[in-house]
Amino acid sequence: MTFIEAERKFIDALSPIYGPEEAKSLTWLSISFVCKLERAKYLSIKQEEIPADDAEQLFKILEQLIQGRPLQYILGETEFYDLIFKVNPDVLIPRPETEELVDWALITIRAINGETEVLKILDIGTGSACIPVSIKKYIPLADITAIDISESALNTARQNADLNQTDINFVHDDILKPSNLELINTKYDLILSNPPYVTNSEKEQMLDNVLKHEPHTALFVPDIDPLLFYRAIADFALNHLKKNGFLFLEINEKFGQETVKLLNEKGFIEVELRQDMGGKDRMIRAVL
Predict the structure, then answer these.
(1) Alpha-carbon span 125 to 218, nearest angstrom
(2) For residue range 193-216, what is the model confidence (pLDDT) as tens digits?
(3) How far apart are CA 30 and CA 62, in angstroms?
(4) Whole-prediction pTM value?
(5) Annotated binding residue 196
(6) Beta strand 169-172 with 143-148: parallel, antiparallel or unpaired?
(7) Most CB atoms closer than 10 Å: which of 129, 202, 210, 246?
(8) How many alpha carbons lie under 13 Å from residue 120 in its C-beta half-sphere?
(9) Is 132 annotated as contributing to ligand binding?
(10) What count of other Cβ atoms lies within 10 Å of the Cβ of residue 32?
(11) Is 200 annotated as a binding residue?
């Protein structure tokens, strides 16, 4: 089978499920991963035969994509902020919106001399560790701690820190009732979090490949208390941010103004709400 024939089979099988554009993207990502090809090289060999082992692996991937399994979990990795991260069903797949949060944090860190001074940084609900690893990679002097309630997620996070040659202090703890002495006895320059923020009632609007495969503890909050984690994080930050320290949060687009109001009422200043590239309220920066 030639590359072009495999490409057509992928797109024909996936288009009814994912739509034509997403099907094309999934096809290219699968082929480039399995066959280790750059785009320019691929275009020059599309009429050539695919090596038998590669063809077999490609169609195993196709079978899983048809079943709705996320490609990132099938491949076992994804790209985030120009870095490679291992992913599996113990952690959420990093999203482009979170890259925007990291970018905002990095701009802020550089503005407060984070490239020449050691800043203490905390990431709450770290998951794959995409946030702390990305920051540490670009701000090597940063002293970063990352916590998660899931020991399985922390195992993946440690692998990603090693993969990207970054030194992160990982802590198993629950931000709703923190107990780690090092954590609660430290003052931080920055605290970041992309906590669970999807309400249970929003499940019916979600794609099956997310709902059936990604960890629910990292996604969902009760409808009766959608700001549960933001309240806990804000209370923690009040006691553990240094004066003029920064709090960065990724948020549910439906509760942007409510989250801003919560932070203002808690006593934070310079609370700024930003939209993501899709024009949705997605992230907040506040100062203590």
Answers:
(1) 8
(2) 998 766 655 656 555 555 455 454
(3) 8
(4) 0.88
(5) yes
(6) parallel
(7) 129
(8) 13
(9) no
(10) 14
(11) no
